[in-house]
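Recap from last week: sequence in, structure out.
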Amino acid sequence: MMIVRTLEDAEKSGRRIVSPDGNWESTRLLLKQDNMGFSFHITTIYKDADFQMHYQNHLESVYCISGEGEVETLADGKKYPIRPGTLYNLDKNDKHILRAFKQMTMACVFNPPLNGKEVHNAEGAYELEAEPISG
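Predicted structure tokens:
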């Protein structure tokens, strides 16, 4: 059966997750339970956010819809500007820092897919077996 879901409906259904640290919020439009092999999220990174992540269990692709910032890869210290139309891919489980100079709206894809309620652990990663969103 085809999956059709609006961002507005997903936000109202419990698929909107707010980070405990106040840096971001994410609406998870596709999750593991949707059986697509990846998850798809619209994530807002708040202005002045500056935080480290290390997705040890997932590969991520991120497309900037709006806003401005940068991503820094910690392995080599390189900084990459982010603006609307920028795509960056964390294809090596890259440890990185994300900074938002202006609030950013990002479209994010994770493989393997998220279950739904994940937030970053102490290492800046999502756990593989987080609690799913019901419904």
